[in-house]
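INTERNAL AUDIT FORM
Audit reference: QA-55
Scope: verify that the stored structure record matches its stored sequence.
Auditor: D.O.
Record contents follow.
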Amino acid sequence: MKKRILILSHDNKIGDAIVATGLFKPLRAHWPDCEIGVLCGPSNAALYRHHPDVKWLHVSSSRNVFARMWASLKARFVGYDMVVHFGLNLANPSEQIVLKIVNAKQRFLFAKHPVKPLPNDVVMDGDLASPHYSARHMRFLQTLKAAPSSYHYDIRLEEGNSELPPKHGRPLMVINSQSSTANRSLSIAWIREFVTAVCEKYPTMDVQLLSASPSHEAELTEALLGFGDRVRVTQYHASVSHSLKVIRSADVVVTPDTYAVHAASAWNIPVVALYLPNGPTTVWTPLSDTYVQIEASPGKVVSDIGVPEVMNALHQMMASPQLSNA
């Protein structure tokens, strides 16, 4: 009888979803006839929708508890043998509701259920707050005796859905400036100063900036007028798929602590990652062979990281492959 495994990804975070894509190949290698399902949100559904190893996709239309309940109910009708929850927030009633409605035969958790633990729960607890987030995924695979020698993301995207700007035969830097909060995002002024420095330092490099909304696209376009065809702003797309395709074409990526760090890692692209002070630089370390991590000074935000510091790190990284600074 085929095993049916449900991966919970309903936090809707794109970066977490990229990390989760590393599960599918090892699971299918261990159980070739298993059927994998994912319960996710509308933003991170693009990471699963076109993956050949995902058979069932249950999309919660929002973070609203009723939307999650409806998606969980659809998952229940499939009838899963196993459900896996990688979060540590089981005290959240919404998480408990999802697990209860899914009603899988066995639950794999990273914390003991605080209200209703079940006799066949597998609790993979331990010091998992410090290691890289993918350590939880490896722990799950190790529990199943299905772990590979190393963990690799496996992004699959629909092809031919949107046109990418043509490359001109020059190296391409992709810059993602926006995060979920203002203090982790790069300001328009910072971007203009940085792009100016890049164009002066690397006259043969093209620069492409990702836009997070129509208004952000307009702001970037206005701020970067006069740079010619070497600097382009990506047209905003509602789906993250287009931005992921742009990142895939990059030779180097510069970004705050966002999904773009993990997207670059998926294709082993050199990345400069910028963090808040005391940020989760260990938990979210890029998995690219070549990367640099820079934290803002205490009491500062990401846009306070000086452009000269980033340029110096970029120069060192490009001159010394496989450099990894934290």
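Auditor finding: record pair retrieved intact. The chain has two domains: 4-143, 172-325.
Action required: none
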